[in-house]
User: Which sequence fits this backbone?
């Protein structure tokens, strides 16, 4: 599969998050055989009382990046997120947030993904593990 075909498949997978994903302004930055990178701009309406990004917005970005990555690797139809765990390492108060998702395991009925969350300076601000259920297609 060419790089352009892979990017187009990732764009299609991201579009499936709409209209929900529209609220966050997700942007597909990179899609390769190994990694998917989604970006969310920092916006005041996504913050908490202390002017840092709300954990729910961060989780939405990470989940969507994992689903886009999984859609490129699934041998069947994605059935949904089975498990999601996040570790918040530091707050994000400006710039943007990137979710860099990689597939750790690709099985018949599930995929396990790891997503690193990086701020505008490239610092890791969070780490996510996620399991996606997969239904076999005939």
Assistant:
């Amino acid at each position: 599969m060419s790089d352009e075909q892979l990017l187009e498949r990732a764009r299609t997978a991201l579009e499936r998050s709409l209209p929900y994903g529209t609220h966050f302004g997700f942007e597909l930055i990179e899609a390769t055989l190994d990694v998917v990178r989604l970006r969310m701009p920092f916006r005041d309406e996504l913050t908490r009382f202390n002017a840092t990004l709300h954990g729910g917005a961060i989780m939405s970005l990470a989940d969507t990046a994992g689903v886009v990555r999984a859609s490129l690797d699934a041998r069947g139809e994605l059935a949904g997120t089975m498990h999601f765990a996040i570790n918040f390492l530091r707050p994000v108060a400006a710039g943007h947030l990137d979710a860099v998702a990689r597939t750790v395991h690709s099985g018949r009925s599930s995929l396990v993904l790891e997503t690193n969350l990086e701020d505008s300076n490239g610092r890791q601000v969070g780490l996510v593990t996620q399991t996606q259920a997969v239904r076999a297609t005939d």
Q: What stands out?
A: The chain has one domain: 3-135. The radius of gyration is 14 Å. Residues 55-73 form the longest helix (19 residues). Strands lie at 27-31, 36-41, 77-88, 96-106, 110-119, 124-135.
